[in-house]
Amino acid sequence: MSFSFADVDSVREGLSGVQYLADEGIAGVVYLAERLQKPVLVEGPAGTGKTQLAKSVAEATGARLIRLQCYEGLDESKALYEWNYKKQLLRIQAERRGEEPEGEGMWQHIEDDLFSEEFLLTRPLLEAIRASEPVVLLIDEVDRVEIETEALLLEILSDYQVSIPELGTVAATQIPLVFLTSNNTRELSEALKRRCLFLHIDYPDLDREKEIVLAKVPGVGESLADQVARIVRSVRQIELKKAPSVSETLDWARTLVLLGVEHVDADTAAETVNILLKYRSDIDKAIKEFASSDEDFAAPPVAS
Amino acid sequence: MSVEPANSPLLGLLAGFISELRAAGLPVSLTENLDAMEAVQHIPIEDRDAFKYALAATLVKNHAHWRAFETVFEVYFSLRGAEYDLVDGEWPDGMDLSDFVDGMDGQQRRRGGGGGEAMSAEQLAEMLFQALMRGDDALMRAIARQAVQRYAGMEPGRPVGGTYYLYRTLRNLDLDGVLKRLMDQARHDAPGDLTPLEERLEQDEFEARIDQLRKEVEAEIRRRLVADRGVEAMAKTLRKPLPEDVDFMHASREEMMALRRAIYPLTRKLAVRLARKRRHGRKGPLDFRNTMRHSLSYGGVPAEPKFRYPRPAKPEIMVVADVSGSVAAFARFTLHLVYAISNQFSKVRSFVFIDGLDEVTGFFEGVDDIGEAVHRVNAEADVVWVDGHSDYGHAFEVFWERYGRDVGPKTTVMILGDARNNYHASQAWILKEVEHRARKVFWLNPEPGAYWDTGDSIVSEYGVHCDGVFEVRNLRQLESFVENLV
User: Fold this and answer.
1) End-to-end Cα separation, chain B, in angstroms
2) CB-nearest partner of B54 from A32, A190, A241
3) Measured distance CA(A130)–CA(A160) in Å, rounded
4) Least CB-CB distance to A304: which of B32, B50, B253?
């Protein structure tokens, strides 16, 4: 069995080659996922690059990305496989037209034929299992499916196989690298968690965020990126309804570049902060904080 | 790769580590245990961070448990070097962890250059200032080490907690003063005047660095304590409850902050879950008209029965909360939670009392920041009648007099408090009347069950008139109560 990554550092290099800046934790877990052949459950606030991680890993390893977007009401026929009912009907009709049915043997023949691979519609999960080339399987927003539907995933996650009653068990020819993302709107079942490696992606720290801005926003200067990262860090420290995510940071940086801003002062920040924050009350709060930092400096609020 | 014999002390250590995690309340299953054992074999053991993340990825499946994990990890794997002359032959040499070596180098460099031991307190303070100014991590680590050695006054075998040493060390370093100095320096260095925004950014930067230093000091103290007392004993003293298990009534300031952070995701989760339950609940009764209409396509045979959508009755909630000192935090969290899911109820009214009672529903109307509203309740509600000591009897009297007629057969009344009545008249008859009129009356008590009816607590006197009295000491219990309520 060959691995695409020799060690943790090569994961990081590989990912940074496709403009994804992984920190120690992310790189370590991706590395382990491949070695242990276990799925990774990625959790964290929205917009911190959970989905992007899977995409980037696929890009870095040159694997095909197969994506299953989860939603409420997702079922077997959308996730695993489905019989091509219309084609099966056609098959039966064709049989009738050709020759008269000749008793039991004929019927057996049709039945075997109807439930063969020819009439199987593969859905993402089965497709990932059956693929012969390396595959990255992304199961996006797994917390959106009902807790009962989660059970669909268990077989594929632990044994990399799918059981189809009419056909038997389809086992994986190669082990796909599986990423599940969750926004944590509900607690996932123990059974699912147990089968996965767990990775929490939080907001990046100052240096990483700055690097991300530098890598992703064309035309941004070193000092502007630094300022953007600093301001975003400060904004995240305020108690907000929705803290700015990395994607919002990037949007903001792009806006500043478009506006030709070289240096962010309080006014520019106040004018463009609506790109960073999406709630009226949050915006007001942030503007107030930045305008009034003079006063609270009299007694520095050092956290205890 | 297979388990090499040389690794077995490590496996032993891991086993102890995992049982400590379990003792701290983390649900670690057998499979996860095995995964962890396998994972660490793929990781170069001298890479401490990778080692930590490998364990975390396999053992910690809930981000709220991360802190607990980190503490246990620090205790178990904060290995110390020859400097402290410790006997740690049982650990393989490979585990002499890299960041620790860095720290040593830093210190040795210091020693070679400036003579670390001989430094005066002023020199140390100056070095600290410089390190913070430049954000030099290695130097900061060396200083933390020096400071602990110098100021903490640690003696082997002394039965004092780490917080005491931490306090002593930090007091001597005078971080507030250092922050002020740093800010002055920053102002001085700046070409012009600092705008409020710039000032704020500088300050956040320095605070982050100081926080870093504080962590280094903590880690250093922990290392030394582990060296002194051994891993198991330390792990036990440092064991902290998980956020959802923190007792409302005895939460420290820091735990309170953690609780407040925890409540936002919790309410969101609860709301999503309840909304889902509502949509996917059992089917309602047979919808006769709809069934008949569909039967037309089957030639009048009602082959496909149709059901009405379930419309579970939304209860009307009245929250009556004691907000006197001892139970205020509990009332705050409950109000927060109830209002966060208020769309599950047809109406929510809230009242707060100490010895007087005031309706605070208005504070929550049309506000989208519940935290802010709860804060205003604390500051503005008029709840003191005579002396500001809880008087349940009088509060109930006022409630009955003013709002009693609003209690109807759809109303669920939730009373929050410890029922410590300061020996005033109980007026339990009012609750009896309320119960008579209301759909349900629940009493939530933040005190542990064992303390009920001790001293001036008269829970059971009120309790006989309630449909249920519940002990609600932490977020976990609160969440499950509120969910059942809906």
Assistant:
1) 53
2) A32
3) 10
4) B253
Which residue type does B253 have? R
Side chain identity, residue B91: W
Give the residue with greater pLDDT, B476 vs B312.
B476
pLDDT tens across A233-262, in order? 888 888 777 888 898 999 999 999 998 888
DSSP B420: B
**Rounded Cα–Cα distance for residues A41 and A179 (Å):** 6
Tens digit of each residue's pLDDT (9 = 90 or more) over B6-56: 456 777 778 888 888 888 878 888 888 888 888 888 887 777 788 888 888
CATH architecture of B254-280+313-485: 3-Layer(aba) Sandwich (3.40)
Cβ contact A59:A18 at 8 Å:
yes
What are the tens digits of pLDDT across the range A5-15?
A: 888 888 888 88
Both tokens of residue B40? 């660490």
- B78: Cα separation from own chain's centroid: 25
- Please choose, from the candidates B372, B371, B381, B363, the residue with its C-alpha nearest in 3D space to the C-alpha of residue B323: B381
The answer to whether A203 faces chain B, any CB pair under 8 Å, is no
Question: Residue A3, SS3?
Answer: coil
Q: Which two tokens stand for residue A208?
A: 């990483």
Would you say A235 and A199 are in contact if contact means Cβ atoms under 8 Å apart? no
Contact residues, chain B, for A8 at CB < 8 Å: 43, 47, 50
Helix (H) or strand (E) holding A149: none
Q: Cα–Cα distance between B268 and B92 in angstroms, integer?
A: 47
Confidence of residue B393 (pLDDT cuts 50, 70, 90): confident
Instruction: Give the pLDDT score at A295.
Output: 41
Contacts of A45 (CB under 8 A, 6+ apart): A183, A202, A203, A243, A245
Q: What does the mean pLDDT of chain B come to? A: 76
Q: Tell me, what's the ipTM? A: 0.80
Q: In three state form, how does the secondary structure of A22-82 look?
A: CCHHHHHHHHHHHHHCCCEEEECCCCCCHHHHHHHHHHHHCCEEEEEECCCCCCHHHHCEE
* A239 → chain B, closest CA residue: B261
B53/A28 Cβ within 8 A: yes
- Closest approach of chain B CAs to the CA of A157, in angstroms? 14
Six-digit token string for A259: 């506006």
Min Cα separation B51/chain A (Å): 9
pLDDT bucket at B79, cuts 50 / 70 / 90: low
Adjacent-strand bridge partners of A69: A140
Q: Cβ contacts of residue A284 below 8 Å, gap of 6+? A: none
Nearest-angstrom CA–CA distance, A138 and A177: 8
Segment A141-159 mean pLDDT: 84
Which residues of chain B does CATH 3.40.50.410 include? 254-280+313-485
Name the one residue in this structure whose structure tokens are 């300050």: B203
Of A7, A281, A302, the CB nearest to B179: A302
**Distance (Å, whole) CA A11 – CA A57:** 9
Q: Is A4 exposed, middle or buried (0-12, 13-18, 19+ CB in 10 A)?
A: middle
Predicted local confidence at residue A138, as pLDDT? 94
Q: Encode pLDDT of B403-436 as tens digits.
A: 888 888 888 888 888 888 888 888 888 888 888 8
Cα(B307)–Cα(B88) distance, integer angstroms: 71
Residue B209, Cβ density class (10 Å: 0-12 exposed, 13-18 middle, ≥19 buried): buried
* pLDDT value, residue B115: 41
Task: Check: CB of residue A65 under 8 Å from CB of residue A54.
Answer: yes
CB contact under 8 A, B53 and A29: yes
Q: What is the pLDDT of residue A69?
A: 92
